[in-house]
Amino acid sequence: MSHILAEIYELKQMIVKYEGYIVELEDAYDFIEGKYQNIQNEVYELDLAYDMTSGAEWRGFLEKTGEKMRTDMCGYTAESQEETEQFLADIMIMIENIRELIRELEEKIAYLEAQMCSLQK
Predict the structure, then answer these.
(1) In 10 A of CB 30, how many CB atoms?
(2) Each residue's pLDDT tens digit, 69-89
(3) 89, 103 contact by CB (below 8 A)
(4) 20 to 30 Å CA-CA from 42: which of 35, 62, 102, 119?
(5) Coiled-coil stretches, from where to where (predicted)?
(6) Could you tell me the end-to-end alpha-carbon distance of the chain, in angstroms, rounded to an integer?
(7) DSSP string for residues in 84-116
(8) pLDDT in tens, 12-43
(9) What is the pTM of this model?
């Protein structure tokens, strides 16, 4: 029976470790998602909306050059934002996978506890 108790203890320690991973991933998700929203709201959307043609000094060649630079910058930002969205989705998948591992460990603990109870009878 002591080997069952030892195994239960080890499984509970694994659950604590996995829960710590979840906390770290959730903290990383919150941090990255905050930065993502900041870039989306304060840089990307404003940059897309900015009209280079309104200023007289931008007419002609400078206007075309400025517009190309803006278009390139928007493209780079959009690409980075898409990659960030995928990374955030990957974090959520990792969290769910760890939660599934925890559920499996909890089921094993319940089984071992039931086994212990049957041995005590």
Answers:
(1) 11
(2) 878 888 888 899 999 999 999
(3) no
(4) 62
(5) 88-115
(6) 12
(7) HHHHHHHHHHHHHHHHHHHHHHHHHHHHHHHHH
(8) 999 999 999 999 999 999 999 999 999 888 88
(9) 0.78
